[in-house]
Each structure stands twice: as structure tokens, then as C-alpha cells.
Write a structure and sequence with these properties.
By secondary structure, this protein is mainly alpha-helical. Helix content is 54%, strand content 6%. The chain has 19 helices and 5 strands.
Length: 383
């Protein structure tokens, strides 16, 4: 990396030097990495590429090296069986986060924690069975993020020890919606949505095997959740878990799209000289519309019981009852223990505990009328 330009070769070399490791495993990831670096250099306009995208990519490469080494040091981890209960696959800002937290709180279910997605591999001096150094570091990272993006807490909750999206692990594959959410790289985002994501999801399973192995062989079923499934990764998800229950969270896109643009703006506006809110509004219109249309086409080929619809108004009006309905639909226990766990989860995650998210559609060149027209195919079916 020199002169504010990222270099794949330099990034790979730096990762090897930082870890003292050489083996990246299957090099399939070089194609998406190359496309990401190319688009970042050409279009992201990053003020400090080495500190932003470059650092994120650097750490991702270091973790790929560490992943290979972990299986060499702990070959038994490859025997860990990852059993998903369901994947929440709706658009962002559709009540998917509270649905995720509720389901993951059920006694028979679990999910990744934010600190695990940021630091899935033990630190070099970490004692076996004691991940507290990583948890402490995750708290520091959260504090730093909220200092850099003070309005982010009002948009999406970030907590070191709360459940988190597996897309953060998919960042290590370089096929991830995180990258076009945090910087203006539309060519990359549209490209990644059309790729075969099966290799990325196979890598995701390997990271989850490492996490489960460190948990001491815990055998709860997993709740997956990320809008990335809808916005590019669905073919990969179904390639590794063909029968997984898909929990599709629904909300009027007029309430969703401007909110997501506002989140992306908070990540981009201070880091990029090419960020344009009007272009971003059109870009995410295209990405959301394409993702929903692909899902509708896919849904027609799946067994009807494989997709579970959850509407935002039901999540808001009676979140515990809605979560219990989902538990029943995925065939899990739904008794007093689940009721108590869900109620405790809601008490700890009340929306009024966080600041109000402020934005307007007009900031991003969006209007309610145009959104309604662009997404009529979706609204007509579900609302």
C-alpha cells in the first residue's frame, strides 16, 4: 500500500508478516479480494485507505491465515457439526435484529456474539477456555466505533456481548455486503451479488466450527441472521444448508430504504471524498429491489413451509408472541422456559433505551411515491 492505494500483494504480504503464517488455504478468495481492492482504489475516494478499508482487509487476511492454523493445531475442530435452526433473511431495518435477539435467547438456541465475530480466533497469549482478553478488546472496539460514529447507536445497536450477524465473519471471504455499506463501491456490490457464494459459506462454517469448538462442544442449534443472505448470499446459504428454515422479516420499504441509507451515510460521509447521498439512494434502491426479486423467484421453488413470514407490525406490537410463533414454525420447544427467556430478552432490549434515529428520505433523493412504485411487486404481495 502506497500513496493511498491498496495492493493485493502488499496486503497478503503484510498479513503473513504480522502473523508469521504462510498458508491461506484454498485461494478462491483472491478473485473477490482483487475485485474489492480494484473498486476501492477506483471509486471509494477514501481519505485514509490504510486505516479504513485497508486495515479491515488486512485483519481479514490475518484471520484467514489463523483459521488454517487453528485446524492444524486442533484437527478435532473439523468434526464440529454446525446445526442451524433458522436464518433470518429479511432486508435491514425490518425488525430482524430484535427477532434475532429474541430467538437466540431461547434455551435450545444460540447465535454468534459480537466479540466472537470480531475476534473468532484466540489471541496468542490467551489461556485455553478464557476468552476474556478478546471480550475486553471487543468492548474497547465498540467504544472506539461509537466515538468515531456517535450517531450509530441510534441506528443499530452495537454491544460487545450481544448476538451479532455472521456477515462480519463473511467479511473474511471478501464476498460481503459490509463493504458496499461502508464505502461507495457500487461496482463491487453489484458484482458480488451475482457471484457463487458457496465457497464463502463453506468458509463461514469453518469459522463457526472454530467458535463452537472453543465453546467446549456446545450443541445448541444456531440462529443465523444477516440481510446479506438476501442481498447476495442466498445461493451460498442454501448450498450449505439446503433445508434451512428461512425467516423472512417484512416491512414497507418506504420505512426501510431511507433508514438504511442513513446508516450507510454515517459510515461513509467522514471517510470518503466521493460519497454522494443521492447516488446512494439510487444504489440501495437497485440492490434492495434486485434482492427481493431474486428471493421471490427462489421462493417459488422452495417448499412452502421452508419460509416463515414475520411482519414488522407484529414484531412491534407483540414481539414475544411473534417470536413464539416462529419457534413453533421451526419445530422447537415453546413452553414456560421459552416464555420467560423471551420476556427477559425484551426487557433488556427495549427500543426506548437507545436514542431516536433521525433522517429524511429526501436526503438521499428518495420519495415515498417512487419507492412505492419501485417496490409495488413486493408490497402488493405482503401488505
Amino acid at each position: 500500500m502506497s500513496g493511498g492505494t491498496l495492493s493485493v500483494d502488499v496486503l497478503l504480504g503484510n498479513a503473513r508478516q504480522a502473523t508469521g503464517l504462510e498458508d491461506f488455504g484454498d485461494d478462491w478468495f483472491l478473485a473477490p479480494l482483487g475485485r474489492l481492492v480494484e473498486e476501492t482504489n477506483a471509486h471509494a475516494g477514501l481519505i485514509a485507505p490504510d486505516a479504513g478499508a485497508g486495515q479491515r482487509i488486512q485483519f481479514a487476511l490475518m484471520d484467514r491465515l489463523g483459521l488454517m492454523q487453528y485446524f492444524k493445531d486442533h484437527p478435532e475442530a473439523a468434526e464440529e457439526k454446525i446445526e442451524p435452526a433458522c436464518a433470518i433473511v429479511g432486508l435491514p431495518r425490518t425488525g430482524s435484529t430484535v427477532t434475532h435477539r429474541l430467538l437466540a435467547s431461547a434455551p435450545d438456541l444460540t447465535s454468534l456474539y459480537w466479540w466472537e465475530t470480531c475476534f473468532p480466533l484466540p489471541f496468542p497469549d490467551e489461556k485455553a477456555g478464557d476468552p476474556s482478553p478478546r471480550i475486553n478488546m471487543a468492548h474497547q472496539v465498540v467504544d472506539q466505533l461509537l466515538t468515531e460514529w456517535p450517531d450509530f447507536e441510534s441506528i443499530d445497536p452495537i454491544e460487545a456481548e450481544a448476538v451479532a450477524e455472521e456477515v462480519i465473519l463473511l467479511d473474511r471471504t471478501f464476498l460481503s455486503t459490509t463493504y458496499d455499506s461502508m464505502m461507495p463501491v457500487p461496482g463491487y456490490g453489484l458484482w458480488q451479488a451475482e457471484q457463487d457464494h458457496a465457497p464463502a459459506y463453506r468458509d463461514l462454517i469453518r469459522f463457526m466450527q472454530v467458535v463452537q469448538h472453543q465453546r467446549g462442544g456446545e450443541r445448541q442449534k444456531w440462529v443465523l441472521k444477516t440481510p446479506h443472505h438476501l442481498l447476495g448470499g442466498m445461493n451460498g446459504l442454501l448450498s450449505v444448508f439446503p433445508d434451512i428454515k428461512l425467516v423472512m422479516t417484512h416491512r414497507d420499504v418506504g420505512q426501510v430504504l431511507p433508514s438504511y441509507c442513513s446508516m450507510c451515510a454515517s459510515l461513509s460521509v467522514g471517510a470518503s471524498t466521493t460519497y454522494d447521498p443521492l447516488k446512494q439512494g439510487q444504489y440501495w434502491t437497485d440492490r434492495f429491489r434486485d434482492g427481493l426479486k431474486r428471493f421471490e423467484e427462489l421462493r417459488a421453488t422452495l417448499p412452502s413451509e421452508q419460509v416463515i413470514d414475520v411482519r414488522y407490525q407484529d414484531t412491534v406490537s407483540d414481539p414475544v408472541r411473534t417470536a413464539r410463533d416462529v419457534l413453533g414454525a421451526i419445530g422447537l420447544s415453546n413452553g414456560d422456559a421459552e416464555q420467560q427467556a423471551l420476556e427477559a430478552c425484551m426487557a433488556a432490549n427495549a427500543r426506548e433505551n437507545r436514542p431516536k434515529h433521525k433522517y429524511t428520505a429526501e436526503q438521499f433523493g428518495l420519495t415515498a411515491e417512487q419507492i412505492a412504485e419501485d417496490f409495488a411487486f413486493y408490497h402488493d404481495r405482503y401488505f
